[in-house]
Automatic annotation (TrEMBL):
It is found in: Secreted, Cell wall. This is Pectate lyase. InterPro entries: AmbAllergen, Pec_lyase, Pectin_lyas_fold, Pectin_lyase_fold/virulence, PEL. Pathway: Glycan metabolism; pectin degradation; 2-dehydro-3-deoxy-D-gluconate from pectin: step 2/5. Coiled coil: none annotated. Its cofactor is Ca(2+). The lineage of its organism: Eukaryota, Viridiplantae, Streptophyta, Embryophyta, Tracheophyta. Belongs to the polysaccharide lyase 1 family. GO terms for molecular function: metal ion binding; pectate lyase activity. It is an enzyme of class 4 (lyase). GO terms for biological process: pectin catabolic process. Its EC number is 4.2.2.2. It catalyses: Eliminative cleavage of (1->4)-alpha-D-galacturonan to give oligosaccharides with 4-deoxy-alpha-D-galact-4-enuronosyl groups at their non-reducing ends.
Amino acid sequence: MASLPYADVDSSLRALAGRAEGFGRFAIGGLDGPIYCVTTLADDGPGSLREGCHKKEPLWIVFEVSGTLHLSSYLNVSSYKTIDGRGQRIKLTGKGLRLKECEHIIICNLEFEGGRGHDVDGIQIKPNSKHIWIDRCSLRDYDDGLIDITRQSTDITISRCYFAQHDKTMLIGADPTHVGDRCIRVTIHHCFFDGTRQRHPRVRFGKVHLYNNYTRNWGIYAVCASVESQIYSQCNIYEAGQKKKSFEYYTEKAADREEVKSGLIRSEGDLFLNGAQAYLSTVANEECVFHPSEFYLTWTMEAPSDSLKDILQICTGWQSIPRPVEQMVIG
């Protein structure tokens, strides 16, 4: 029987808070604030998502409407916010969310599709943002990345998300000049990368824990380790299409170093299907990769299997689930 995580986070509205596995486990979102109801699909103004995200106080944002919300510009999210799409079907298009110098953000059960413009990502996390959990979102077809995590943003978990119809899916670490990105720590688990071309993810400098993800039919590679990155790939499923190379290594020179380096990938219990090739770094180098237990003690994981594959195709991305009730505090 599959042991999927988060079985009880839909038991009440705020049960998500502080429940992420991995590096984003401290994210509480708007736990300590009132509920804010989005009552319009307008891009701005009273009752809009933008108005709620701009407010400075903690808020648990829910939706009273369903439909497509066209963002004419990036929507900046301020600290201590939960954007909770459970109970409705909200699709963001045009531009994306920007998490800039903020902390304690939870984004749950939204769709992102059709973002247009230079450097337009579905969810852009930079700079200096932390304690973030992105759960059960569907992302496709943006002009740049679907989720980008750069410029010293850290302690982030991405779980149960669905990625499709895209090229440069997920970048972690900006470029070789941003040596401050050595602080980056990200957990990606129970996600489904469905025919996206590359970057599942591509990592510079940071530490990334991947487990129980399903990546299939990539166009260049599945996972890329670039300058100084450490990637721990654990019990994932890599199912090749025409391109067989699961792991890629790009060499770059950090701005404060003389030598050119790639990153390191350690694979433990991964399943390689349809001729997928790991191309692992040497065993000696693998031992230099961090182990997640250095940072957190537990995570929900099972051996990769056909049943896990089936479940990830059903249970990732936006879900048609009711909004949980708000538990009243008596006393």
